[in-house]
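dude i think i finally got it to work??
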Amino acid sequence: MATYLYRIGRWAFRRRRLVSGLWLAALVLAVGAAALAPAGQEEDLSMPGTESQKAFDLLDERFPDSNSQGAEARLVFQAPDGQRITARENKAVVRNTLGSLNGGDQVASTTDPYETGAVSGDGTIAYSTITYSANAVDLTEPTKSALEDAAGRARDAGLTVEIGGSALDAEVEPGGTTELIGVVVAAVVLVITLGSLVAAGLSLLTAFLGVAIAFGLISALAVPLGLTSTVAILALMLGLAVGIDYALFITSRFRDERAKGNEPEEAAGLAVGTAGSAVVFAGATVFIALVALGVVGIPELTKIGMGGAGAVALAVLVALTLVPALFGIFGRRVLSRAARKAARPGRERPHPAPTGAGRSGLGVRWARFVLRRPAAVLMIAGLGLGAVALPALSLELGLPGDESKPVETTQRRAYDLLSEGFGPGFNGPLTVVVDTSESGDTSESGDASESGDARATTDLVVKAVQGVGGIESVGDPVLSRNKDTAVLTAVPRTAPNSGETKDVVHEIRSAVDGVEADTGARIAVTGTTALNIDISEAMSDALIPYLTVVIGLAILLLTVVFRSVLVPVKAALGFLLSVGAAFGVLVAVFQWGWGADLVGIEQTGPVMSLMPILVIGIVFGLAMDYEVFLFTRMRESYVHGASPGAAVVDGFRHSGRVVAAAAIIMISVFAGFVGLNSPTIQTMGVGLASAVAFDAFVVRMAIAPAVLALLGHRAWWLPRILDRVLPNVDIEGEALSRRAPASAPRPDAAVPRLPVGRSRP
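look at this
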């Protein structure tokens, strides 16, 4: 692989104008396609195969009119202090407000709260449901403005009015102050690390180009593939982070090769052949982990994984082709000022050592400190991460609703008013579906006796649900047109995301089992709350199997790369520690509220259901990035005769600074998305930023070298049978180091097998 990538690097350097032009054309096409494509719409999460999802699908079939895709708004009215909403003057204001909306553009219907009984028990709060003929994305600005203007007139008349529902829900658009802060921090780190504005700008430019193409493609495919804003934001987040890091790794290696005296084209080839090999492997691990999210069975999670994987793949391609092309375009300006001075005509080229070599920088001093006290470092770092991970034992999963939105939003205030007037469970009603189509031969005309049987079965279900503790009320059943399906609504006493509501759902399902056995009817509990509970439980059940697959994959891949048994096991266990600590941070911040004000979290609750698996999948790939970039240099030194301790020091001398800079950049990019007013993105930003921090600085730079120091030569041991069977991927570019410095590699050159896997005497 190193030889093949070497040829790509040299070709891209020579054909720099062609390569740059092709990538620019790809950017124009992607942006143009995005501009011409219709806007996508946000879709509710679904979980095929669960009881709640099957019931939803049945409702779509049996009640097509009531399950339209139109947006809904809920106008919530509250009377002034000391007054009732049922007072004549307040009732007139409410009806005038609704009358101004009736017959409006895209308005299908409005409900009168005084006729439907949508008035709180104390008579202070009422609500009306406005149904639209178009979905939320297709609602026009005049339609939304009419709704807001109507609410404003009612406020002017003295009422408190808030708007809930999906009509005003807007997609979270990427771009903002906090994201820019993250990019600025990344730019500063690049300048400090590389000592060149041009080199820093090159890494940012290539990362932005890859992200722009990925974002354009996702926007263009949003409607045909049903991609949401969350898919786009994750692709932006991941593509930006790995794009900067991959360009940094290759640029750093290019500068090292130039410092050794290699000509620019040769240095570009060597940089892509060595650091580029590690980039390919690291990107492949992230890609595989994200694509593997599809096995969980949630369509939205599959789309998120595919979108992120596509952005990572683009980042790898850009790093391997556009980065060396820009080396040719920018020339010596990619080098630091000192290196440019040394290369001026008339000066004798000093052939300085590669970046970091020959210096006892912070990385080298830290490595030597760890080697002197490996047991103490291992114990302190391991116990520290274990302590941070302890809150993860209390992890609760759920899906955010309006209750998690900022209190300044009208949706959140509407949610709070409805909870105040109708109880906390009103915002999360449960839907019980009774299907009697297989318990009798009901006909289209709805025979009276058969209809009576359906009603009798439904009455039994109503009694069973009413007997469940924690149920506030049960609504009157509604029969389908064919009289073979009934729907009833049960309102729990507790909030949708509470553990008590979860218990209520399970109790209802247990209570109706007897009715199913006696009547042959099929009974299912659904609704948004029940579906969220089912998805959360499915996520919990899938967590351990997915983690097992990821850990197994990590050990297999790293065994191939490092040709060692214990190094991959160490890497996998370290990954578990960093992920566990990240889960602990998520629980502490989002469930317990520790430091919630710092990230703008105003309402604590369960952790977003998708987050644990997303964090595992993404961090797995990123952790392998740091493992590969740091430890390939250690292995390279070891197989060339260095002692285990000297190999560790050499790895930190060559790669420690760059890996630390890459981790800081990635943390900054992820943390920059915490400022978005989206619970999903905030949770993702906090989880990924903390996981990368733990993995890069505690696991890879403290625990890992301490373990290597304690194991000594045994760390690089590989059984002879595995040494013969495993392929040699040559990430270190050993085949390139055996060539003449500026000679082109033979196309049929075999990659020699490195003499590793045997214990040193």
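The radius of gyration is 31 Å.
im so relieved honestly
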